[in-house]
Design a protein that fits this description.
The structure holds two protein chains of two kinds.
Chain A (H helix, E strand, L loop, with lengths): L2 E8 L2 E8 L6 H21 L7 H6 L7 H16 L7 E3 L5 E3 L2 H12 L7 E6 L2 E14 L2 E20 L19 E8 L2 H14 L3 H5 L6 E6 L4 E3 L8
Antiparallel strand pairs in A: 1-2, 2-5, 3-4, 5-6, 6-7, 7-8, 8-9, 9-10
Helix pairs in contact in A: 1-4, 4-5
Chain B lengths: L1 H22 L11 E2 L21 E5 L2 E5 L3 E3 L2 E10 L2 E9 L5 H24 L3 E3 L5 H4 L3 H9 L5
Antiparallel strand pairs in B: 1-4, 2-3, 3-5, 4-5, 5-6
Helix pairs in contact in B: 1-2, 1-4, 2-4
The chains are: A alpha+beta, B alpha+beta.
Chain lengths: ~240, ~160
């Protein structure tokens, strides 16, 4: 079967697109992939916390920002806070008082989900740093957080999303919003479901909450999760697909 | 044999990708930065760039195993060539034939990247997976990742 892969570095992440099936090797498919990368770069220009010229940086400097996409993200972050019982929070306390708005934990999944619309009609996956949205059926390995060159399991993901959060590659970058302390009780949380925006938010919130988050994850309709504790123990929601 | 050749070429693409990334400097650099030379044996090269989809190395049989030497890949840090051992239609080992050693940085790369490459290509093949989900992988860690090996196996250079 025809299959083609494309890779670019955007938002400091390796972004891989694999397209397969009829038309996968066509110029139209390559154009669609170029559209995906262009859109992700445009989103990075708006939402990067590292670029002084981004809308996000302007917002945090207290400058007036008029951008419908910024409004959408602010609304989604509020929804995310509510849906996760406060364990996802895009507002971070500043050392000198005040708060800093950093929606990066939501923007990545949301931007990838939006950018994937360029690939409508193809069987594809779009993987941004380990979080991906897929159309068609793809076999996805879940990395072992203790040994990133090994897999915990491999599952079939069909027309949906899979996101993993944790401290494996970047150290403790997830913070418990209630204590301000780095979240260390969970090595990684993988969430599958229909939307990458929400799979990613739920995975991040569960990592912040700790291993007991698995009971909360089990209540989320349409989503399943696999959680690895700091002791290496695996916990999964009842509907998590078992390996064949 | 056709399938084996394709798998072999895919493996070479892994090498191209890994070393292209290693040598890139910008965050948005293209993975196709490396150029391919059509050399068929270690230490023998030509300056003609060729498409990785059409270039082939040498293939020799010894017993039930097939040993294939990849085309030499010219990177900014020197020439890279690998040898793949294929048995029963599967890659059973990957060995470096030529690796850059022009400076300390390159030696560091070789020490790390070559064994990693071997482990990853073999692991990806045995797990029959298309993609990897893991806690946010950064660009720095990409070259050592299983996802990079999977991308490399299907990466096609722009014509």
């Amino acid at each position: 079967m025809t299959r083609q892969a494309f890779v670019e570095q955007i938002m400091g992440l390796p972004v891989s697109v694999h397209v397969r099936g009829p038309g996968a090797d066509s110029p139209a498919a390559a154009d669609a992939v170029a559209g995906v990368f262009a859109e992700l770069r445009a989103m990075d220009a708006i939402f990067s916390p590292y670029r002084p010229d981004s809308r996000l940086s302007a917002l945090n400097r207290g400058e007036p920002v008029q951008d419908p996409l910024v409004d959408v993200v602010i609304d989604l972050c509020e929804q995310a806070r509510q849906r996760t019982g406060g364990y996802f929070n895009a507002y971070f306390p500043e050392p000198g008082g005040g708060t800093r708005f950093d929606p990066s934990g939501l923007v990545k999944g949301w931007a990838v989900e939006r950018a994937a619309e360029h690939l409508e009609g193809y069987a594809f996956y779009l993987n941004a740093g380990g979080d991906m949205t897929v159309r068609g059926s793809w076999r996805v390995g879940v990395e072992d957080p203790a040994q990133p060159d090994r897999l915990l399991t491999a599952i079939e993901v069909v027309d949906g999303a899979i996101a993993t959060s944790g401290s494996a590659h970047r150290g403790a970058h997830i913070v418990d919003p209630y204590t301000g302390a780095p979240a260390l009780a969970v090595r990684s949380v993988t969430v599958i479901g229909p939307s990458l925006t929400w799979a990613d938010v739920y995975a991040t919130a569960a990592a912040a909450q700790g291993p007991q988050a698995v009971t909360w994850l089990a209540t989320l309709p349409g989503y399943e999760a696999l959680l690895v504790g700091d002791d290496g123990a695996l916990r999964a929601t009842p509907g998590w697909p078992l390996p064949e | 044999m056709r399938r084996i050749t394709m798998w072999f070429l895919a493996t070479i693409a892994v090498v191209v990708l890994l070393f292209s990334y290693r040598t890139s400097t910008g965050p948005d650099s293209s993975p196709s930065a490396g150029t391919l030379g059509g050399a068929n044996a270690p230490g023998v090269g030509t300056a003609t760039p060729v498409d990785p989809g059409t270039s082939a190395g040498t293939v020799a049989r010894s017993g039930s195993a097939t040993v294939a030497d990849g085309p030499a890949v010219q990177t900014k840090r020197g020439r890279v060539q690998v040898q793949a051992k294929i048995s029963g239609g599967r890659i059973t080992d990957i060995m470096p034939l030529t690796v850059p050693s022009d400076n300390n940085r390159s030696r560091d790369i070789n020490k790390k990247a070559v064994p990693q490459l071997r482990a990853e290509a073999l692991a990806a093949q045995s797990a029959h997976i298309d993609a990897v989900s893991g806690a946010t992988l950064t660009s720095d860690g990409y070259t050592e990742s299983l996802q990079a090996a999977l991308d490399g196996a299907h990466f096609q250079a722009k014509p």
